[in-house]
Amino acid sequence: MRQALIVALDTDAHTALSLARTLRGHVNYLKVGMTLFYGEGPGIVRQLADMGFSVFVDLKLHDIPHQVEGAAREVARAGATMFTVHASGGRAMMMAAVRGACEGSAECGSDTPDVLAVTVLTSLDAEGIAEVGIGRAPGEQVELLTRLARDSGVQGVVCSPREASVARAILGPEALVVTPGVRPAWATADDQARIATPADALVAGASHLVIGRPITAASEPASAVERIVTEG
Ligand code: C5P
Question: Which residue among 7, 210, 216, 228 is best mutated to probe the pocket of ligand 1, counting the most ligand atoms within 8 A of its Cβ?
């Protein structure tokens, strides 16, 4: 369980670094999303990596392949262990992300970060998907994009716990299947609706679990991690 945990730092840099100091030795992975990255720049990734964390850079890149290749190169140079792109950007764009990741890591002699494809945003329901012109049901669209992600050479996908078993079946045992929307049974209710417990998400096929507020907003974040590790 501990190896699977990724703590989402959706805070300002000061709070993020303080949380990182508190969580050192308790978790290996931290997630830097758009808020923290755009507020602080790539330096925050390097700072967290230098503290010994694996850093998941969740910027959900989506642009022409040339631009995504360049962004992926810079994200790799910043010290990311993995990062996200939108699968709907297409095969050539995902292949460009993988190329950029290889180029950036080669330039600085570090390990190549894994590329994760985001299939369908969980914030979109059937109506929202129809509004952007997609005729398929959300589940079918997730399957189609997961297959495209696999064929484009990325290392895994981000999906909700309820899609994890389908993603695992398509991608095979080695792929990364990263699920947000994870809540320990003891966590207080918030805006996450389609949730699963950490143990259930792992059983469904997740390799990594993104958990934010149940840890970051706890009075003792390190104790919250330990409770998740022991209770699931
Ligand atoms: O605080 P909480 O556990 O809800 O944080 C979950 C993290 O996962 C946030 O950083 C959120 O942006 C991200 N996320 C999500 N649902 C998705 C994709 C990412 O909650 N479908």
Answer: 210
